Amino acid sequence: MKPRVLVADDHSVMRFGLRALLEMADMEVVAEAADGREALRLAQEFAPDVAIFDIAMPGLNGIDATGLLKARCPQTRVIILSMHSDSEYVHRATAAGASGYVLKGGATDEIVTAVRTVQAGRQYLSQGLVGAASGARSPLDSLSARERQVLQLVAEGHSSSDIAKIVHLSPKSIDTYRSRLMRKLDVSDLAALVKFAVQHGLTPGS
User: Fold this and answer.
1) pLDDT per residue over 157-201, tens digit each?
2) Into which CATH architecture does domain 139-199 fall?
3) CA 183 to CA 180: how far, in whole Å?
4) What's the CATH code, domain 4-134?
């Protein structure tokens, strides 16, 4: 039976390339998404065997999308696509429930191998990353999933009222979250919050 795969990446060229690669390997791409929230919605709708999430997606990054998806659709295996080889990112991805972590720019057939491996119930890490999942912890570990979501949206320049609509809270609650984030991360202004989010891969920045 063909693996049913969802592809989520904010770059249309990347999605096109992944679709072509997977279909050539006799896999079925059931849906494509351009951001993390759309990926989450489509994954719940189509219940794919495997979801491939880019790590740096607008609105909701791939790692936090993984955590939410595994809570709602535990049968779907997730592979994170990333430019980051740091152990912090691999640790966060596997802690969120990802079964695979593939570095962008590697061998193109690696993603096909990764899909087959995780569908079979095993973990797949790009060469050189084995052992990284148990490596360095991240300062983001001190934040709740909701706090990370708000931090990403703040760093991407959304207003409190816009964030409130996205995460279904009141603007006052968002302001409270923002203040709490500054206190927890020991930063004094918005620019420092944005810098922290970019440094730790929550958003790619401008």
Assistant:
1) 999 999 999 999 999 999 999 999 999 888 888 889 888 888 887
2) Orthogonal Bundle (1.10)
3) 5
4) 3.40.50.2300
